[in-house]
């Protein structure tokens, strides 16, 4: 069964997610949805309401990162 890419678009604060990190799998929580160009996780994030990005915090390292919805998978 093909994965519907739209399923990851509606993430919210506190959601448990996974993403690829340095060839492995990272896990963490969504901290916030970013819908405008801003500075986050040490870089400029070029997000918009039409193309939001999500700030996540790694459970393992405690580090913060920003990812597009397509890079995040909500844990069941």
From TrEMBL:
<feature type="compositionally biased region" description="Basic and acidic residues">
    <location>
        <begin position="1"/>
        <end position="19"/>
    </location>
</feature>
<feature type="compositionally biased region" description="Basic and acidic residues">
    <location>
        <begin position="28"/>
        <end position="40"/>
    </location>
</feature>
<dbReference type="Pfam" id="PF11160">
    <property type="entry name" value="Hva1_TUDOR"/>
</dbReference>
<protein>
    <recommendedName>
        <fullName>Hypervirulence associated protein TUDOR domain-containing protein</fullName>
    </recommendedName>
</protein>
<dbReference type="InterPro" id="IPR021331">
    <property type="entry name" value="Hva1_TUDOR"/>
</dbReference>
<feature type="region of interest" description="Disordered">
    <location>
        <begin position="1"/>
        <end position="76"/>
    </location>
</feature>
<feature type="domain" description="Hypervirulence associated protein TUDOR">
    <location>
        <begin position="14"/>
        <end position="72"/>
    </location>
</feature>
């Amino acid at each position: 069964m093909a994965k519907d890419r739209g399923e990851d678009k509606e993430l919210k604060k506190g959601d448990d997610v996974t993403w690829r990190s340095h060839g492995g799998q990272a896990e963490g929580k969504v901290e916030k949805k970013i819908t405008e160009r801003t500075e986050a996780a040490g870089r400029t994030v070029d997000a918009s309401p039409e193309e939001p990005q999500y700030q996540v915090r790694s459970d393992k390292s405690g580090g913060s990162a920003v990812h597009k919805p397509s890079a995040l998978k909500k844990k069941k």
